[in-house]
């Protein structure tokens, strides 16, 4: 039997506030273990939480960017469970009244555009971090109480490619609006998969498995592929399918059983008695709406329209806010969007990847990139020399003109000087003329290479090509 894969996502997004959700402890990543803690986030007796207004505003902002309705009255709930990384033995979350509902994100698929529905977004706090060692398990509570929003989709995704397209677009939106840095390597964006199979053509969903421990889009894709195959084999063998929570093990490339899937009543949800209810009026919502920037998909459409680049290039450039802003400024200066896109998606992206940096960390400005393109366009340096200048700009942060001078990369365009170099090269290699007379016209390219080598790449290529062709033709007729 053929099956259709059904996927829903639960995306946990750490909000980039300076302080935690219910106390004034720092949310900074990378502090010494258990140094960003206080009686509130450690759950000590008598400590009372206080709502962080900025958390609520950022949750509203995410909801508006994702086309959600904002719930006018907020209530917090306790989700009770007992893990070492949860010092209170419960999590403050939202169950009955999530802050955002009924949103959507549109993705591009092979069949065209598709809306992925968002069921809900709710606010909650993060747990601590367990560190497993040979001596035992250690717990760092610095992350406990860091504010999260959980974005829950409807089961609208049908493939690993669609899941990646959704997560790519979601990540770009959340970063663009500034609610989170969405760094998966630091845990500020985490995703759990819900995967099930249903018979092809059916509308009845199968029994789902939830997959945890996914720290990259590649891991998510591999987990979907493995889980689809595992469930298909189980169904073929007539096994009873039970709801499960599984984890992705990168080392063995498999999902492994953790426990049976918990239901809502397993967590004994009840209203959080230490936090008051919260009303969100229209004025608050409109204040937040006014802070929304141009969203990545709108920005991509503008880049295609205004700068003449392809839809694919625009999509790539708008995945990271800093890169999109850099391109926007550089393309507006130069008027040549395609050239700017090529530099940024080629050499600049390569250098950033090699150094594990983001566009936000670039040491040169859009104006510097524009100046570099002018130097190439005017023939001051060759395109090959331009690549050397760009690399020096990246590492040293110096201006392109200064680097051209210090590196001695200025292109030679004096025709009298270049003609002498051409004549020297042809005098030293008389076989070039002989081959040309015998119909081997491609030998002209070899001769151009000889001149470029002799001038150490500084000769203007277009002038050299013309001079070599003219001189070879002239000598061949003699």
Give a concise summary.
By secondary structure, the protein is α+β, with helices and mostly antiparallel strands.
Structure description:
The chain has 15 helices and 16 strands. With 478 residues, the chain is of the alpha+beta class. The protein has 2 domains: 285 residues, no CATH class; 63 residues, Arc Repressor Mutant, subunit A (Orthogonal Bundle), CATH 1.10.10. Strands 2-6-7-10-1-11-12-13-14 form a 9-stranded mixed sheet. Strands 5-4-15 form a 3-stranded antiparallel sheet, with no helix packed on it. A two-stranded antiparallel ribbon has the order 3-16. Helix 9 packs antiparallel against helix 10 and helix 12 crosses helix 14. The chain starts with a strand and ends with a helix. The model has no long low-confidence stretch (mean pLDDT 91).
Layout of SSEs?
Elements: E1 3-14, H1 53-65, E2 69-70, E3 73-74, E4 77-80, E5 90-93, E6 100-109, E7 112-125, E8 129-133, E9 136-140, E10 147-153, H2 160-176, E11 189-199, E12 209-214, H3 217-236, E13 244-249, E14 254-260, E15 270-271, E16 278-279, H4 282-289, H5 296-307, H6 311-317, H7 321-334, H8 337-354, H9 366-377, H10 383-396, H11 400-407, H12 415-428, H13 431-437, H14 443-454, H15 461-477
Parallel strand pairs: 12-13
Antiparallel strand pairs: 1-10, 1-11, 2-6, 3-16, 4-5, 4-15, 6-7, 7-10, 8-9, 11-12, 13-14
Helix pairs in contact: 1-4, 2-3, 5-6, 5-7, 7-8, 7-9, 9-10, 10-11, 12-14, 12-15, 13-14, 13-15, 14-15
């Amino acid at each position: 039997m053929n099956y259709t894969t059904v996927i829903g996502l639960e995306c946990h997004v750490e909000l980039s506030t300076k302080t935690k959700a219910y106390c004034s402890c720092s949310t900074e990543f990378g502090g010494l273990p258990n140094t960003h803690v206080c009686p509130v986030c450690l759950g000590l007796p008598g400590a009372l939480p206080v709502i962080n207004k900025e958390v609520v505003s950022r949750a509203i902002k995410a909801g508006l960017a994702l086309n959600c309705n904002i719930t006018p009255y907020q209530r917090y709930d306790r989700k009770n469970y007992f893990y070492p990384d949860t010092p209170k033995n419960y999590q403050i979350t939202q169950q009955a009244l999530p802050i955002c509902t009924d949103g959507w994100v549109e993705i591009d698929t092979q069949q065209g555009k598709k809306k992925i529905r968002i069921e809900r977004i709710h606010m909650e706090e993060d747990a601590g971090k367990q560190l497993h060692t040979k001596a035992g398990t250690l717990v760092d509570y610095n992350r406990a109480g860091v504010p999260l929003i959980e974005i829950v989709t409807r089961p609208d995704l049908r493939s690993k490619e669609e899941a990646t397209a959704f997560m790519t677009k979601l990540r770009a939106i959340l970063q663009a609006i500034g609610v989170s840095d969405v760094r998966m390597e630091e845990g500020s964006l985490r995703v759990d998969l819900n995967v099930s199979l249903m018979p092809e053509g059916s509308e009845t969903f199968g029994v789902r498995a939830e997959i945890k421990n996914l720290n990259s889009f590649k891991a998510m894709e591999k987990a979907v592929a493995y889980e689809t195959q595992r469930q298909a084999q189980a169904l073929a063998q007539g096994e009873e399918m039970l709801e499960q929570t599984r984890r992705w093990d990168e080392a063995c490339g498999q999902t492994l059983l953790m426990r049976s899937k918990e239901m809502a009543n397993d967590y004994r949800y009840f209203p959080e008695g230490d936090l008051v209810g919260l009303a969100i009026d229209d004025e608050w919502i409109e204040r937040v709406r006014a802070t929304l920037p141009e969203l990545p998909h709108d920005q991509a459409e503008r880049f295609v329209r205004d700068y003449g680049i392809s839809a694919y290039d625009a999509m790539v450039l708008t995945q990271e806010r800093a890169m999109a802003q850099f391109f926007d400024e550089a393309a507006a200066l130069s008027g040549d969007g395609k050239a700017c896109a090529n530099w940024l998606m080629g050499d600049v992206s390569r250098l950033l990847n090699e150094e594990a940096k983001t566009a936000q960390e670039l040491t040169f400005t859009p104006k510097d990139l524009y100046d570099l393109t002018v130097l190439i366009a005017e023939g001051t340096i060759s395109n090959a020399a331009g690549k050397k200048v760009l690399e020096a700009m990246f590492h040293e942060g110096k201006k392109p003109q200064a680097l051209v001078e210090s590196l001695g990369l200025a292109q030679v365009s004096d025709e009298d000087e270049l003609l002498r170099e051409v004549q020297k090269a042809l005098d030293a290699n008389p076989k070039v003329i002989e081959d040309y007379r015998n119909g081997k016209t491609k030998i002209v390219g070899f001769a151009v290479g000889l001149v470029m080598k002799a001038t150490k790449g500084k000769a203007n290529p277009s002038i050299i090509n013309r001079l070599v062709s003219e001189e070879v033709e002239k000598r061949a007729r003699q």
